[in-house]
Design a protein that fits this description.
- The chain is mainly alpha-helical.
- The chain is globular.
- Belongs to the G-protein coupled receptor 1 family.
Length: 309
């Protein structure tokens, strides 16, 4: 276990004396910062013009895009500044920018993680509640949840002011809870959709009340939920694992190098989320275009429709 001053000293030494590592880290974060900023800005503009989404779902997507925009616009530039200041031996600026980097990173990544978890829960509730979804998941209740996320994310980043050890100790349970909830929700979505597909197939193997095109759309929706879950786990599990090791070991440069690459990966998730979001919005638009051609078809089975819309 070690405090922030020890971590800052290692950070400055690493940035100054390992030029190859510093160059790679800077290149990754500069590129990812640009894509995250542009991608999430476009998502926010698209959501402003999109009227077919349910207001609660749109609000959660906006929260995710806002937090990911913050990562690209504030967090990654602060990380780059901290490394550059260390490389040019501007130690006071290095420590200040490093502190700002950690502080804003805790807020925006925490808020992004909570938003993705909320989106998973929202999709699960759409399948679970069916026609009662719109009555239960209202925009007023969604705003309360978002306000709670803001409070929790603020409290999470404030733990960094108390102690680096407290910050690390609070990170592990928060990430664990979000991962468990998201994994459970996506698993239930997958199983529910699979069971619905199987229920539509007759013993002769022919669709019963559902066209092959809509059956394919169901399967693609299941695939999309799995991609979202996989992206979240792949981008966040390394830093989750390194944080646990970090909390139990003495400070060393090798672990810090691994930790920084794991952090770069979690920042990359902010660039990846807009791509996955655009993929999902394209499905929604295609579903809207063909809705008039399938009036009365089982594509309008409410839980599936709620998931897509």
């Amino acid at each position: 276990m070690f405090n922030y001053s020890q971590q800052a000293g290692l950070h400055c030494h690493l940035s100054r004396n390992f030029s190859t590592f510093t160059g790679v880290f800077l290149a990754l974060n500069i590129a990812s910062s640009i894509t995250a900023t542009l991608g999430n800005a476009l998502i926010l503009v698209a959501l402003q013009k999109e009227s077919s989404l349910n207001p609660p779902s749109k609000l959660f997507l906006r929260c995710m895009a806002f937090s990911d925009l913050g990562v690209g616009l504030l967090v990654q530039p602060a990380a780059v500044t901290s490394f550059l200041c260390a490389a040019y031996q501007l130690w006071n600026l290095c420590l200040l920018s490093g502190f700002i980097w950690n502080f804003v990173s805790a807020f925006f990544t925490g808020f992004s993680f909570a938003s993705i978890t909320a989106i998973s829960v929202d999709r699960h509730l759409a399948l679970l509640l069916g026609i009662r979804y719109r009555q239960v998941v209202t925009i007023q209740r969604t705003r309360v949840v978002v306000a709670l996320f803001l409070v929790v994310s603020t409290a999470y980043c404030l733990t960094f002011l108390i102690s680096y050890n407290v910050f690390i100790a609070s990170s592990v349970p928060m990430w664990s809870i979000c991962l468990i909830i998201s994994t459970y929700c996506h698993t239930r979505i997958y199983l529910t959709l699979r069971n619905h597909i199987q229920a539509q197939i007759t013993p002769q193997g022919q669709p019963n009340g559902i066209s092959p095109e809509n059956l394919s759309r169901y399967r693609k929706t299941v695939s999309t939920t799995l991609w979202l879950l996989a992206a979240m786990i792949i981008c966040n599990f390394p830093v989750f694992s390194v944080t646990i090791i970090d909390a139990a070991t003495s400070p060393n440069l090798s672990l810090m190098m691994v930790q920084y690459f794991a952090v770069a990966l979690i920042y990359f998730n902010s660039s990846l989320n807009p791509l996955l979001c655009c993929w999902k919005i394209r499905e929604i638009r295609n579903a809207k275009t063909k809705r008039g051609k399938h009036n009365g078809s089982s594509f309008h089975f409410c839980p599936i429709k709620q998931l897509l819309l």
